[in-house]
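anyone seen this seq b4? input:
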Amino acid sequence: MTRFQNFVQAYKSLAVILLNTVLLAGFLYAVLSGVFLIRNTLLRRARPAPENYVSKTYGKMLKSVYLHLNEEEMDRLLEESWTRPFQYEPFTQFKEGLLQGKFVNVRPEGFRVTPPQGPWPPVPEHYNIFLFGGSTTFNYGLPDSQTIASVLQNDLRRRYPDQNINIYNFGRGYYYSSQELILFMRLLAQERVPDMAVFIDGYNEFVFYQDQPYFSEDISKYFQQREQSSLKTVLEKQGVQAFRKILRQKSPVKSKAHQEKENTEYENMVYQHKEEISHVVLKRYLVNKRLIEAMARDFQVTPVFVWQPVAAYRYDLSSSPFPIPILDDVLIRYGYSRMAELNQDGVPGPNFLWCADIQAQVQEPLYVDACHYNEKNSRNLAACIIQHIVGQELLHKISGQ
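predicted toks r here
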């Protein structure tokens, strides 16, 4: 056999070996892919729902309001909305936790991303609008692209295509007018001055009718547990880390009987004192509004105060699968009726916008849980705000006045 024949024979043998190797590798890849696919499917089915408030409270009902998302996407959205730990912030106590997620993105400066997000710090030559409010303004349960802030920014940019309009969403869970006042003041002190500031309130004014931010009781207990003589040492050693620990703590689990007793006592108290509570709440809100207006005048900021819609007031609850809390049914419903009377009398002033009636004639789902808006209601509220801004020609810088 010649050398050439030997070479040909060796080449054929090597080719057969390589071909068999490739076929075997392909077969193993197909088998392993199938195994991992089956395993991942079983893991997804066996995986418990995310440990967040809405999933534990409403369970399968949530699928009826997230028809455009599959189960994995819905779990991801709810996890990003509800499981981010708050971060400590001086003066206001806390801010939304930093996150770069698929649906929810929060910047270190404390605002939620409104895509496409304007630069930070804001550019003075642009028209910059700061949004303030609670979790309904942050839009818990919705992705960045469907928030009130996003709708506002897109619509205003469409109306004024030659201008640089940027929305900064400072809505934060549990915030109400007292905390918004402080946050607005701190931003001004840091020379972060917007052209317009929009405050969306109503719901949390009554939730925190005692005028104590969400973590006040926990922080108070923290200090009460320390001897006064050791207070200085505690603060020197732990500083803000102590407060950050408080923000991460979970409330102790109460027995069902204990919780029912507390609920009954609370219901009785609210029923008996709803008139005086509402009076105090509305008076405090109007005072906070005056203080914000005073700062806004001095810094040449246009303030807009929005009274938001809530499920308990003028909404067909048969359109929603979510039962509303007793607080909403008693105190908020009554308090909103009193605020409606004040608005009819012109008490809040010309820069006050009543949007609480926008759902009165709507018979369709507008909420993703008992209090947070779905995409439809977010667009409705944004449209109410836009109509006021454009109708009152508040964007004077853009109009060239």
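The chain has two domains: 1-47, 84-249+257-399. Strands lie at 87-89, 93-95, 99-100, 105-106, 127-133, 165-171, 196-201, 302-307, 352-354. kinda curious what u guys think
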